[in-house]
Amino acid sequence: MPVYLGGRGEALKLALAPFFDRVYSAIGGHLSVGREDLTASLKDVRVGLACGATLSENEWWTAELATNLLARLYPSLSINGSQKDLERLRRLAVRINPAIEFCNTAPAELTIGIGHTTSPAGIWPSANGWFSRLWFAPKSEHGATNPYAAGASACFAVAEIFRRVFLNRFSDAEVSVSLLTFGKTERDNVGLPEGDFGEVLLAGIGAVANSALWTLARDAGRRGRLIALDPEHVEASNLQRYVLGLFKDAEHTKPKTWIAARELRYSAIKVEKAALSLEEYADKHNGIACPTICISVDNVETRRAAQALLPRLVVNGWTGDLALGASSHHSSDERACLACLYHPQGRSLSQTEQAARALGLTPERAAALWVTRTPLSQQDISTAARTLGVDPAELAGWQGRPLGELYTDVICGAAPIRLPVVNRVETVPLAHQSALAGVLMAAELVKGTNPELADLSQRETLVTWGDVLFPPPSVWVVPRAKEPGCICLDEDYQIAFRDKWSHK
Ligand SMILES: [Zn+2]
Questions:
Q1: Of the candidates 380, 376, 397, 385, the residue with the CA atom closest to the CA atom of residue 422
Q2: Domains in the chain and their CATH numbers?
Q3: pLDDT tens-digit profile of 385-439?
Q4: Residue list, CB under 5 A from ion ligand 1
Q5: Which residue of 62, 68, 144, 492 has the fewest CB atoms within a 10 Å radius of its CB?
Q6: CB–CB of 112/135 below 8 Å?
């Protein structure tokens, strides 16, 4: 693995987070790096945040989430800004990692600049209405307040820092994406109207839901009622990527629903807590009465169960191996339902799932490639090469050809490529990966429950960033049709759905 900074072998006393083993599971899994190497590579890393003297609301949120994410990985942070902001951000970092060290400076290329500041910084996130942006030269914009875009910008910036530190991979290609439409033009921007999302079952308070709640808590015009479902408590290992998780929450093993309610205590969103799984909740209440489910659980069965509970709208947030995304499913339309995305029997899906697993592609990317016979991109080839542990040059001959050919030739053994034994440790998503999935999930919830925004939103079911070890994609949306054999095409399901909602 390329190590940007640091040596190895010496006895290290670092301000590593107390949950470093979990950090190691996340990073070691992605980069095939040893624990000692990771410790050593973090030894001399200083990352920074340079804030202007006065920050807009968007800028403050970006600074806040960036600090939150950085403090979960890097032992030494440099934070500059007004005295008040500096103190608040440092206090946040210490609550996450009590051992964290603050330094005066960090290299400009590892410093995030926010707002009007002359401090040297190389990475400039900003938000303007629904537009989330990342620049590589000083930039400050004053657009409409939007915590979804501001949160996403923080994730883009922290992802860029991660690639610079651990992969020595520097990007200077500007990122600009509207979380409303996933387009790039000014037409893709409107304000954030106030509104009520009604009653929503929030199934699973994991890392993805944590950042969804973080974002919703900052949306001052949002009203609604969340029924937060999760039977578990916060553990130290969760702190690696739970943006609502503080060190003391794990010490006191607080329920996950409790930290959800704490985050929303000053907002107009009401929270009801239930220490139950979605299935247990539905059993207890003989089904569900809420029109909307927002789900980010860690298993496929519960996602399929969610669709079977006949919600009008399901919003789904997920992280895969290196991927992240969100999807939105209105039961009445022609697009894929949530169960379609996770349908087990579909012949094409099981093939694509195997190919996805073997080649390290996301199931969504593999399915899109397989169904549409879209040619494999250079990024797909490099993902496959990294997963298989071979030089990308060995697979170059498959670029531009269909996924099925790469799979048959390489995995099924038609082509003479020697694959090394890849021994990977358990893979846990990276903090910024889960955080962005949650921001996207929250945005889809708000868009899907607001008619004005729903009309303007992207038409595709799925939005995804396929590999966070590369810069954000230029195309985020993935169209998905219904899966033959899925419950949503079943007549009894359709009748039950109409019976449930027609009189309401
Ligand atoms: Zn379906």
A1: 385
A2: 20-187 (3.40.50.720), 195-343+429-501 (3.40.50.720)
A3: 888 878 888 888 889 988 877 876 676 554 555 554 333 333 578 999 999 999 9
A4: 337, 339-340, 486, 488
A5: 492
A6: no
